[in-house]
Amino acid sequence: MSRTREKLVVVGNGMAGIGMLEQMIKLGGRYDIQVIGSEPHPNYNRIMLSYVLEGTKTVEDIVLNDWSWYEQHGIQLHTGTTVTRIDTEARKVHTGSGLEIPYDKLIIATGSKPFMLPIPGIDKDGVAGFRDIADCQRMREAASSYRKAAVIGGGLLGLEAAKGLVSLGMDVTVVHLMEDLMERQLDHQASAMLQAELERQGIKFAMGKQTVEITGEQRVNGLLFKDGSRLDADFVVMAVGIQPNTAVAAGSGMKVNRGIVVDDYMQTSLPDVYAVGECVEHRGVCYGLVAPLFEQGLVLAKRLCGVDTKPYEGSVMATKLKISGVDVFSAGEFMDTDEHTVISAKDDWKRTYKKVLLRGNQIVGAVLFGDVSESANLQKLVRQQAEMNDEIYGSIMGTGCCGGGAKTASVETMADDEIVCGCNGVTKQAIVQVITEQGLTTVDEIKACTGATRSCGGCKPVVEDILKYVLGDGFAAAAKKGICGCTAMGRDEIVAEIKAKGLQTVREVMHVLGWSQPEGCSKCRPALNYYLGMIYPDTYEDEAESRFVNERMSANIQKDGTFTVVPRMYGGVTTPEELKRIADVSLKYDVKVVKVTGGQRLDLIGVKKEDLPKVWTELDMPSGYAYAKSLRTVKTCVGSQFCRFGTQDSMSMGALLERKFERLDFPAKLKLAVNGCPRNCAESCTKDIGIVGNDGGWEIFIGGNGGIKARLADSLCKVKSDDELVEICGAVMQLYRETANYLERTSEWVERMGLDTVRAQVVEDSSNRKALMERIELALAQVEDPWKKLLRDPHKRDLLFEHKEPVL
């Protein structure tokens, strides 16, 4: 370490302390930095813990700054280390492992700890908090062995814990002292809508119940309430609140009330000792939300770097909750009184609710349920206590023609240091700088560069508005791209022109629409072939020469020139007879390897080109379409037929869906999975369409991807019957076929279209859903197994398998 730099020690490796260090690095602060963290992990995103709990993300997925980040910036990180004492006279930090770390400046960022009710039985086995990764691991272990769980606390953490445990297959009841959920953030109406939606998702509620004892011998077996009633439970999660973690500060002589007392520049009562985050008390207030922590961190970072800064004057409290498709937001004041003017709108059909509170004509609070697209704008307006006017009213309530201009205006007047992404502490100025200095033109590029939108995604509309504002007319030009270098026309333009002009062949499209390359290229020819087949499913004659080589050969070509053959196994289920045929064929034709694929199929690797027709004939099984832009597999667990946790027959449903939709062309490969219960053994969360069985029916997820651009699927809807499931899945597939760009996976398609748009067209609009289903049925009526089709055509068989095939 350099001896000329001041020594900066940060006690706490959480989002507040490391967020502050990120700001210091951006400002060019020069310190020798050491960070001490009690957990064995690098800095991670606590907001995403509920996803780790339910199993849709790993610990690695939620890491914000990995080990290499600390090394890159010369920061020495001590993990699994607890600070026991701070010697402010000698300026040294003492740890439980015996370390003595000197400092010139010290930052306390010890966060908070869960509050555990002081009631009998609190120390029994099977009682846990929900605050860190270790808690998630304990809860996941409990879910693998026990059935009934109680979550005490109906606040944000309690509801996230409950949803995670339900996803793991537990029977969960949320116990709450008050009659309304999240009563510190939501009014009665929004709370009631939230409870109703979560009940539809399988969470039970015991409202107005005060827990007085956790019963059982060594292990918990239930809860006893003040009114004498009981609730059976073999696992209990305590989520009744948090308390600032101040023990080390108090023991070291700092002034502590509820939290560590700081001034407007985050200075504690001791010289050169600062504090930031949930452990802090500022002007009598302790904050348990993320955005205030970054606002505090930015002030402290500027202070330590010698940059002029406004003092921290407190934060407008704002909460955003997203649990499996439930969106809730509140900011500022949310309970209306006689002194408020109330603007509200409730839509029972779309399950949305908006309320804005005015004092005089100033916006002082807001509540949103279902549609939270205006949350960032409203949070800003509440913070500024802006005057309500027709333009703002039109934007928020969706009336008149003012909406579009209001967003642009709010971005234009937004302060440079205003935090846009509360999860990651990214300011407007940081976003503007990467757009102007690095030439970024998309939200995804901004996300990769700054971290904005990478967590909850709630700030994405504001990030896009900033992008539009900075690029101006260049935004449209940057967004407009042709499908390849042969044309400036995009997918929608081409499809519209094909329909309007009645174009029937690939060459006709290229000629009439003015392709710069008369023969097209390997990008546009397959795309045009797909679009024509999608538009005219009953009349278009497929052009094999416009397909990729794998699709022409109906097998995947390998780097040594041999091919792989994957026969269809519906739902991943086969028979001993089929297995014997596969083994016999593999031996006869010298197949090098037989591999079990990730989609529960057997892949025969190393088949010679000239042997393909004979292998298909002797297998006498349908093509598994492992080579095509088509339905690849429907992965299943064993479901209710065999599993003790299974609630639905996943194997039968998987086979039904696979038989129903196989062989149909899609813009890109399509993978499905069906789980018989929420335990996710078939990995539905990373499939294009994932289906999860529950006691009341099925839940449908869309847009998942486990590949290079990994993405968790979004919850689309719940259905009660198998017929509804098949119809909605078919409608989603056809909407995807009709609106996706060629080679665009559903993960990208859902983000571009918007989940609400898809839901509106296939779930809420029943007539449109039926029309989509009719169109996919028409397309399905034209398809047949490609292996059998080629075996019936001796001329094409000889042409493809006895001659050298050109590669596209």
TrEMBL record:
BFD-like [2Fe-2S]-binding domain segment(s): 419-468, 483-532
Domain of life: Bacteria
FAD/NAD(P)-binding domain boundaries: 7-280
Domain NADH-rubredoxin oxidoreductase C-terminal: 318-385
Residues passing through the membrane, by range: none
InterPro entries: BFD-like_2Fe2S-bd_dom (IPR007419), BFD-like_2Fe2S-bd_dom_sf (IPR041854), FAD/NAD-bd_sf (IPR036188), FAD/NAD-binding_dom (IPR023753), FAD/NAD-linked_Rdtase_dimer_sf (IPR016156), NasD-like (IPR052034), NiRdtase/SiRdtase_haem-b_fer (IPR005117), Nit/Sulf_reduc_fer-like_dom_sf (IPR036136)
Keyword tags: 2Fe-2S, 4Fe-4S, FAD, Flavoprotein, Heme, Iron, Iron-sulfur, Metal-binding, Nitrate assimilation, Oxidoreductase
Family matches, as Gene3D superfamilies: 3.30.390.30, BFD-like [2Fe-2S]-binding domain, FAD/NAD(P)-binding domain, Sulfite Reductase Hemoprotein, domain 1, Sulfite Reductase Hemoprotein,Domain 2
Pathway stated in the Swiss-Prot or TrEMBL entry: Nitrogen metabolism; nitrate reduction (assimilation)
Names of required cofactors: FAD; siroheme; [2Fe-2S] cluster; [4Fe-4S] cluster
Ranges where the Nitrite/sulphite reductase 4Fe-4S domain occurs: 628-768
Limits of the Nitrite/Sulfite reductase ferredoxin-like domain: 557-620
Similarity remark: Belongs to the nitrite and sulfite reductase 4Fe-4S domain family.
Protein name: Nitrite reductase large subunit NirB
